[in-house]
Amino acid sequence: MKFTLVSLLIPTAAEAFAPTSSSRHGVRSSLNAAATDEFVVGILGDLHIDPRKMEDYGVGKSHFSPIFDEAKSDGKGVAVVSLGDLGESKNCDHNPESDSELFAGTTQCHEMAAEFLGSFGVPYDVVGGNHDLEGLDEFETDEENLAMYLKAHGKDTAHFCREVADKTLLVGMGSTVFRDAVYTSHEVTIDQEQIDWFENLVQTHPAEEGWKIFVFTHAPPNGSGLRVLQENHVVNGCCWLNHSNEKQCQKFINLVREHRCIKVCLLGC
């Protein structure tokens, strides 16, 4: 297997995604007829898009484009994965009727993010971060906010699975709770339906049969050893996936340890 991971982090930071054909496993596919086990994945960290600073994102995109163009011409599978937190969590002069509305989590935010991510010219997927359902002035409930987020990005569910090369899956899970969080609203909460789906996926795609799975989430699994903004996230109880639910929190790292098909976990925060 030969692959390339290309990452983009913009700290300041059309054609929207159209679902590609399903593979024989019922997942989205980025397989090219000439491709076997070679692929290129562009990984975008927390974009925190600010509509007043889009020139910065254009510069970042220009770094990716030639890499993707070369990979496509070589017949490799190509995809983009965004690790969530798509919009800036502040007022960005985006709503003339409000001087306090946060940009993150709004319809305008996700439609702008979808246009940007779709403009790379390759299939993209996204996992929801702790700011992606933060459209508090626009939506009354998490369900309403989540439905808009899914629609904007052409998603049926908060999770995704894409076959980017032969027996090689890009798998992501996103947060589905903000207002209804038991403790802190900024905990990245992967609901039980996604957890069950992920467990079934890794069980049915074993390493012994040649499967390779790359996992994408916004926050890291507890037990990974990754240190992230300790003074804020740990104190807040939102450092790791499902931080405040001990059983669910342990589940992710246990699945990683048990299933050798999981090759790497890639995270925002």
Features of this protein?
four-stranded parallel β-sheet; single chain; 9 strands; 269 residues
The share of residues in extended strands comes to 15-25%
Give the averaged pLDDT, no decimals. 87
First-residue to last-residue Cα separation: 29 Å
Helix segment tally? 6
State the total count of DSSP E strands. Answer: 9
Task: Describe the strand arrangement of the main beta sheet, using strand numbers.
Answer: 2-6-7-8-9
Q: What letter string, H or E per element, gives the SSE order?
A: EEEHEHEHEEHEHHE
Sheet/helix structural class: alpha/beta
Can you summarize the main beta sheet? 5 strands, mixed
The low-pLDDT segments are: 8-26
| Helix fraction by DSSP (H/I, runs of at least 4) | 25-40%
Radius of gyration: 18 Å
> So what's the overall shape?
globular
Walk me through the structure.
It contains six helices and nine strands, in the order βββαβαβαββαβααβ. It has 269 residues and is of the alpha/beta class. The protein has a five-stranded mixed β-sheet with strand order 2-6-7-8-9, with no helix packed on it. Strands 1-3-4-5 form a four-stranded parallel β-sheet, covered by helices on one side. Strand 3 (38-44), helix 1 (54-73) and strand 4 form a beta-alpha-beta unit. Helix 4 (192-204) runs parallel beside helix 6 (246-258). The chain starts with a strand and ends with a strand. Mean pLDDT is 87; it is low at 8-26.
